[in-house]
Design goal:
The complex is a heterodimer of chains A (about 120) and B (about 110). Chain A is mainly β and about 120 residues long. In chain A, about 0% of the residues lie in helices and about 50% in strands. The relative contact order of chain A is 0.31. By secondary structure, chain B is mainly beta. Chain B contains no helices and 9 strands. Classes of the chains: A mainly beta (about 120), B mainly beta (about 110). Chains A and B meet through strand 5 and strand 10 of A and strand 3, strand 7 and strand 8 of B.
Chain lengths: ~120, ~110
């Protein structure tokens, strides 16, 4: 069965960095685009980044552009999110999610990892 | 920030029907497919509807989706207490480019 397992969250001070990882299993990872989506405490869902199957196409939300970098490694069946210059408002649960086949929707989600930015 | 607008909350009695609206623009709902997600309290969001009106396997036919122009709706019939959750619409926005979620709607079963 499809599994997505995030890791790497934790507590960091403003201006610091975190690297999130998402390990995928149960499907042909290289056939699917992947995304990161976050949810601040008590708030709604916010899409933040997309990476294509070959890693050549990447998109970012304006809120993280220039600070976050998405990458993927098909050999390791993993997608990553490097988060730099973190702000208090980046505090959220971060989910990796698989893009559905052909069209833009998210058919499988990980359990999420919490990143807390606080002094 | 969300560019798709949903009502903050809807409610109805068990067995009844609720409809959740999702309003966008030509660059998102008007030109791309809509999906809907259910987030039960304390859990991970789950895909409910994709490509405007398709249900993944395992989603009961009490849930239905539709799209017209720059708006979409999610309908839930035969409302159950287990349907109490937050519901989000979403669509790709070609002008950004990026995916956008709705503001979210809390469904309460009275």
């Amino acid at each position: 069965q499809v599994q997505l397992v995030e890791s790497g969250g934790g507590l960091v001070t403003p201006g610091g960095s975190l690297r999130l990882s998402c390990a995928a299993s149960g499907f042909s990872f290289s056939d699917y685009s992947m995304n990161w989506i976050r949810q601040a405490p008590g708030k709604g869902l916010e899409w933040i980044s997309f990476v294509s199957t070959n890693g050549n196409t990447k998109y970012y939300a304006d809120s993280v552009k220039g600070r976050f970098t998405i990458s993927s490694d098909n050999a390791k069946n993993s997608v990553y999110l490097q988060m730099n210059s973190l702000r208090v408002e980046d505090t959220a649960v971060y989910y990796c999610a698989r893009r559905g086949w052909l069209h833009d929707f998210f058919d499988y989600w990980g359990q999420g990892t919490l990143a807390t930015v606080s002094s | 920030q969300s560019v798709l607008t949903q009502p903050p909350s809807v409610s109805s009695a068990p067995g009844q029907k609720v409809i959740i609206s999702c309003s966008g623009s030509s660059s998102n709902i008007g030109g791309n497919y809509v999906s809907w997600y259910q987030q039960l309290p304390g859990t991970v969001p789950k895909l409910l509807i994709y490509d405007n009106n398709n249900r993944p396997s395992g989603i009961p036919d009490r849930f239905s989706g539709s799209k017209s122009g720059t708006s979409a709706t999610l309908g839930i019939t035969g409302l159950q207490t287990g349907d109490e959750a937050d519901y989000y619409c979403g669509a790709w926005d070609s002008s950004l480019p990026g995916f956008v979620f709705g503001t979210g709607t809390k469904v309460t079963v009275l």
